[in-house]
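Hi L.,

You mentioned the student needs an example of a multi-chain input paired with its predicted structure. This one should do, with 397 residues in total across all chains.
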Amino acid sequence: MNYIQTLRTAKDVVTPGMSACQGCGAELILRRVLQLAGQNTIVCVPPGCLGGSGVVGWDYQTGMEIPVHIPLLTNTASYLSGVSRMYQRKGRGDVNIVCVAGDGATADGGFQSLSGAAERNEKILYICYDNEGYMNTGFQRSSTTTLGSHTSTTPLGSVISGKEQQQKYLPLIMSMHNLSYCATASPSHMADMVAKIEKGLAWSKEGFAYIHMFSPCPTGWLYDIDQGIQIARKAVQSNFFPLWEMENRKYRMTYDNKKPISIADFVKDIGKFRDLSEQDLAAIQSMVDDRYEKLKKLSSEADCNE
Amino acid sequence: MSERKHISPIGQEGLYVLDTASWRTHRPVMDKNTCVECGICLSYCPVNSIIFNDENKYEITYNYCKGCGICAVECPKKSISMVAEGGEDHG
Ligand code: SF4
Ligand code: SF4
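Structure written out for the whole complex:
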C-alpha cells in the first residue's frame, strides 16, 4: 500500500470542525498522526494552537473520538509517562501513547519533563509541531524561532529588528538522549512523513520515539493561506529543515539534497522575514550550511523514502 | 445536565464540532475531466475534506472545508480552481 492508499482508508478520529486557522500546518500534522495511530490510542495535547482549537474538548463535549488529555504546558511527557506505565502494568502495551505538542511545550517550558521521559526511555511517541513560536497567544518568540523573525516580542524597530538569536536545533538534542527513534519530518514530503509516523509508532512500543515536524503557520508567519506546503517544501529544499532519522543509533538522511536552493529563496514569500537584513540572511545561510554538513557527517548513508 | 452518567462528564454531550465551512470565502471545485486520480490533494488537505468515494474517485466535500486553497495549489494537474462563494449560502 502506498501512502495515499493508507491515508484514504485511515479513519480520522479528530473532530471534523476544529478552530485551527485556514491552511494550518498543525491541523494537517495532527490529523495525519492520529489517522495512522488509529483508535487504539491515548493522546495528550498540551496548551498551544492545537490545545486551543477545540480538539481537547470544550465544556462537556470532547474533541476527538479517542481519549484526549490536556496536560500543562510543562508536564506533557511526565504526564504520559504515568499513562504509559499504567498501561504496561495492565498488560496493555498495545495501546499507542502519543503526544502532539507545539515548540513552546516541547523546546521551552516542557523541555525538562521531555528530557526526563526521553532519558528514562518511556514508551511514548512524542510529536512536536514546530511553528517557531507561541502562535496561539499572539506570536511570541520561542527558542526555535529563526533569527531575524518578526514576532510580537521581537518587533521591528530602531532598537532590534526581529529575533536576535539563532534557533535551537531540538531534534539533534533529542537524538542524543539515546532514543529508540528520532526523526524530522515535513508535511510537504508526505510519503516520508507517513513512513516516519509509522516507524515512530512501532518504536514507541520499545521506548521513547521523537519526531520533530515543520509546521507552517500562515497567521503568525504572514503568508498566503494556500502556500503552506510550498513553504514547507522550500524549507526542505533549502536545507533549512533537513530530513533525517536515527534508528538503532544510526543516522540517515532521508532526503539527499543534491542542489539546495538558497535561504533567500526560502524566506522570500514569508512576511515575518520581510525586513531581514543582509547580515541576518547571511548568518542564517551559514548556520544552515554548517548544520547540514554536521548532519551529513553523522549519517552513514543516504537512502530516501520518496 | 440533570443526571450524571459518567465519572468524568467530558464527552457526555458528544463531539465538539465547529461550523468551519462558514469561514470559506472561496470554494475548491474539481474538474473531473482533467483530474488523474492521483490523490495528492487528499494527502495535503488539513481538514480531510477530500475523500475517496464509493465510486473510487477523489471528491471534495464542503461540510467543513475552510477554503484554504492548498489543494488547488498542490494539484499537479491544476484540476482544482478556487471559486468565490456567493451571498449567504455556504451549503
Ligand atoms: S491532486 Fe488533482 S489530479 Fe490528483 S486527485 Fe486531486 S484533483 Fe485529481
Ligand atoms: S480548500 Fe483547503 S480545506 Fe478545502 S478541500 Fe482544499 S485543502 Fe481542504
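You could point out the following to them. Chain A has one domain: 3-302. Chain A touches chain B at residues 3-5, 7-9, 12, 15-20, 22-25, 27-28, 31, 54, 57-65, 187, 190, 225-230 (CB under 8 Å).

Best wishes,
N.
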